[in-house]
Amino acid sequence: MNLKSIVIVTILACLSSCGDSSNPTENNGTSSSQPAKAELVMKSAPQDSTAVKAMKDSVQDGDEVMVHGRIREFVEGFAGFTLVDEKMRHCDERNDDNCKTPWDYCCEDSTEMVNHSVTVEVHEDGRISKSTLSGLGGMDRLKNVVVEGKVKKSTDGNVIVIATGIFVRP
Amino acid sequence: MKLLPWEYPLRNIMRRPGRAILTAGCSALAAALIVGTVAFVRGLETSALRSAPKKTAILLSQSSQRDLVRSAIPASVGDLVAADVRGIALEGGVPCVSSEIHMGTKIKFSSTEGQGFLRGVTKRAFLVHEAVTLIEGKPSAPGEIIVGRLAADRLGLERGAIKVGSRLSFEDREFTVSGIFAAPGTTLESEIWVPLYELMGLTSRDDISAVFVRLESDEDMDYVDLFAKRRLDLELISIPASVYYAEMAAYFAPIKRIAWMMALMVGLAALFGGANIMNAAVQDRMRELATLRAVGYSGLALVIALLIESTLYAGLGAIVGLLIAKYSIAGGSISLAMQAFELEVGALAIVFGFLGTWLLALMGTIPSCWRASRCQISLALKER
């Protein structure tokens, strides 16, 4: 009787542990999105990336691109951020400026900022993911990153990069 | 402890009617001042906060420094938002998205000319600004405008001077008032609403100031922010309306501080005046108070009698003060910047008026209480 109980308990324990290992990816939506986001972070620096402005001037809708720049600000509540050409100088790079929010590039001309910026988004199931990229792999405002992804260009020229990989420069 | 009969303080008030009237008058003015200050400060603060439509985001230009009047964005933004943004509230299938122009300009009415606030709107504005109700007339057609209940006050005219059918001129064009609207407790009531496309034509603008987007829930604000950050070419920022109007209310903080400081200074003047009157009253009655001590009443019993006396003065004064406030302050309006708001004598103002006057009266009685409780009976009885 005792031996029989031990065998049953052992079998049940094995079955339940198998079930547990499959849960995070199959049943829990939040957990399943975590590995996908972590996979975005590239471990080595990609070669031959282009600056934001040069990329914007030359790309067509659907092009695969590798673009480098600096994170301006994250999109509230979504996996996205604005990437700015490194040519643009944020307020901390100006010696005479004591701006408390240097990432807003308030010292730069707004039209130039538009020409030198692009939105980067991470999609899941064809839609922007509802999670933040802030902190992922060390991503923060004004951090230099290289983004690999596909271009979505609207008819009026607005460019969005749907990221498939992001490298955060040390 | 043996207390003095309750009618003793009351009889004392009757004994010197002239002094009683002056003391109560002092309390009345203090009460009216406190009520007026509370009504002003509350009106300044709440009129801005209540002007924020609920569950609404505002899209305005990045370069506007978060100021609707300075903002200029493409006129197409409203349609783009309605087509692209998820979570927008619908009324009868119509998206609650209002494209607007906000501007101040000179308004001419009859022989009067003053600075007024214009809001260029489409009919969708009523879907977003739910506080607004047309109380007279009809919505505007081309060549017509609707005006807020306080628009006349803003122009320095009597309330109700602008009626349905009145003609107002601005930007070299005459408009007929087709309706009057109310939006109680908000600054919207001082505005003049003009058909958006007519105002764009008049001012030679091909842009608008902002787009107000009413959403199904506050959580959907993120979708408006996402739109602004995706459409970098439009140079937009998104702010929740509640945040925008809270910032506007905070802008008036120095004015509120000055109002409170002035009320405090006048209150202190009333306090010292009242203390002087009560002190003189005790001085005059020193022999009487000493006699009461001699027949067995304690110093505390005299203090309680004096506090009751000053409470009666304060209560009488506060009632008169509230009546003064009701007939001279309530319903009046204050014009500030390009807006106007109505002064409301609400429950809070009344409670503040009563409590403030009572506290001033009690504090003003402290020196006389001290004197009465410390009097030397033998010396006081010899006083003439």
Strand line-up in the sheet with most strands of chain B: 5-6-11-8-10-9
* N-to-C span of chain A: 63 Å
Sheet-strand content of chain B, in percent, reads 15-25%
Architecture of the largest domain in chain A, according to CATH?
A: Beta Barrel
Any low-confidence stretches of chain B, pLDDT <50, length ≥5? none
Shape designation of chain B? elongated
- The total of beta strands of chain A comes to 8
Helix content, binned percent of chain B: 40-55%
State Rg of chain B: 29 Å
Note the total helix count of chain B.
13
Unreliable sequence segments of chain A: 12-36
Q: What is the rounded Rg of chain A?
A: 22 Å
* Count of discrete domains of chain A: 2
Which CATH class of the largest domain in chain A applies here?
Mainly Beta
Structural class of chain A: alpha+beta
As laid out across the biggest beta sheet of chain A, the strand order is: 2-3-4-8-7
Strand composition percent of chain A:
25-35%
Rough outline of chain A: globular
Integer average pLDDT of chain B: 90
| Largest sheet composition of chain A | 5 strands, mixed, barrel
Q: Please give the most extensive interface between any two protein chains, plus how many residues each contributes.
A: A-B, 19 and 11 residues
